[in-house]
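ok here's GCN5-related N-acetyltransferase, seq below lol
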Amino acid sequence: MTDLSDPAPSELAAPSDPAALSDLSDLFDLSTERLSLHLLTVEEGRRIVDVAPGEQDVWAEDFPMQDDRDGVKGFLGAAEAGHDAGPFGCYRIDRAAPDGAAIGTIGFYGPPDEQGQVMFGYGLVPGARGSGYATEALAALVAFCRSHDGVRTMVADTEAGNTASQRVLDKTGFALVKEEGDMCFYRLDATAG
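and the structure came out like this:
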């Protein structure tokens, strides 16, 4: 796994230069036993939003889902406005075997805020659910956050009826802190565990 605690976001190339960001994105890729989390470039994000895979892309049959496209749109909007999220951007979740296919996305709503808080979002295609991939991917980002001095708190939310997502958050150490309407809100202290 790459040590991502060294480069400060201000030291990274501005997202308005997709070629420069493309050169840097591989520096922030994370690997787990069964997955590769690839930090998206602007160009890769556009292909996902447009559902237009390039010849180098290997996508699962039902990738990208609408939730993937919505999350990537947020990343692209910030990048196009000149906001450099550095390693706190959007990652494509690629299954390592048997095919290396993209099976979902996971990422941050942006870099840590003034209080050191980051928020996660994630999703998998239906064919990849139930295999522990979401838990494995989220655990990798939690570990990254724990190694980064700027992160003090991690948060996520899910619909009350999404018990699978709630299990993912529970398994990665998040605690349910509030239920409001049809939403559940979770929190994890970066120094816990």
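fwiw The longest strand covers residues 117-124. kinda neat tbh
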